[in-house]
C-alpha cells in the first residue's frame, strides 16, 4: 500500500510540475494553412491591425478568418498550394480551423486594447519578430506568465497591484 502511495505522489508531483512550468506551451501545433506573415507585411504592405482587426478596440485580438481573408483572396492570386487551401475555405464558406497558441491564463485579465492602444506596447513585445515570420505560430513566442507581466509593468511604471490583472 505504501509503495502505491509513493508512486501516486510522484505522479501527482510530476503533473503539478508540468502544469506549473507551462509544459502545454511547449507543444508545437500544426496550423491548417502555412500562413506567411512576412509576405503579407512586407510584400503586400499590410500591418498587424489590417487582419487582427479587434486588437485596437477589444480585449481579444481576434485571429483573422475567411471574412478578412476573402477581401484579397476571393480568387487565387498565385499558384501557391497554401493559397489554394485558403480559397477552398472561402469558397466553401468554412472557417479556417486555426489553433490559438497564445493564451492568457483564465485567472488573469488581459486586454489587447489597453496594452496596444493605451499602453503603446508593440505587438512584437509579446509575439516576437512577426514581420520576419514565414510560417504561422506553432507555439507561443514566449511564455506569458506573471513574472513576464510584472517585469513589463515595472519597466513601464504601470500598476502591479493584484487587482490590475486578477479579477
Give an overview of the whole structure.
It is a single chain. The model is unreliable at 13-24 (pLDDT under 50). The protein has helices at residues 2-20, 37-43, 48-51, 66-73, 81-91, 112-118, 123-127, 146-155, 162-165. With 167 residues, the chain is mostly helical. It is globular. α4 packs across α5.
Give a brief description:
The chain has 167 residues and is mainly alpha-helical. Helices cover 45% and strands 0% of the residues.
SSE arrangement:
Elements: H1 2-20, H2 37-43, H3 48-51, H4 66-73, H5 81-91, H6 112-118, H7 123-127, H8 146-155, H9 162-165
Helix pairs in contact: 4-5
Features:
single chain; mainly alpha; 167 residues; 9 helices
Oligomeric state, counting identical vs distinct chains: single chain
Uncertain residue ranges: 13-24
Number of helices: 9
Radius of gyration: 20 Å
First and last CA, distance: 43 Å
Class inferred from helices and paired strands: mainly alpha
Major β-sheet profile? none
Shape type? globular
How many E strands?
Answer: 0
Strand content: under 5%
The percent of residues in helical segments reads 40-55%
Mean pLDDT, to the nearest integer, reads: 88
Order of helices and strands: HHHHHHHHH
Amino acid at each position: 500500500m505504501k509503495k502505491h502511495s509513493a508512486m501516486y505522489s510522484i505522479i501527482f508531483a510530476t503533473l503539478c510540475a508540468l502544469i506549473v512550468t507551462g509544459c502545454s506551451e511547449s507543444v508545437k501545433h500544426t496550423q491548417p494553412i502555412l500562413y506567411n506573415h512576412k509576405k503579407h507585411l512586407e510584400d503586400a504592405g499590410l500591418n498587424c491591425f489590417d487582419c487582427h482587426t479587434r486588437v485596437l478596440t477589444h480585449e481579444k485580438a481576434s485571429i483573422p478568418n475567411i471574412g478578412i481573408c476573402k477581401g484579397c483572396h476571393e480568387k487565387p492570386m498565385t499558384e501557391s498550394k497554401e493559397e489554394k487551401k485558403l480559397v477552398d475555405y472561402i469558397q466553401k464558406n468554412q472557417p479556417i480551423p486555426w489553433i490559438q497558441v497564445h493564451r492568457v491564463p483564465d485567472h488573469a485579465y488581459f486586454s489587447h486594447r489597453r496594452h496596444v492602444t493605451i499602453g503603446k506596447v508593440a505587438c512584437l513585445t509579446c509575439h516576437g519578430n512577426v514581420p520576419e515570420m514565414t510560417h504561422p505560430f506553432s507555439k507561443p513566442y514566449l511564455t506569458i506568465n506573471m513574472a513576464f507581466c510584472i517585469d513589463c509593468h515595472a519597466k513601464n511604471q504601470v500598476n502591479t497591484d493584484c487587482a490590475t490583472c486578477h479579477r
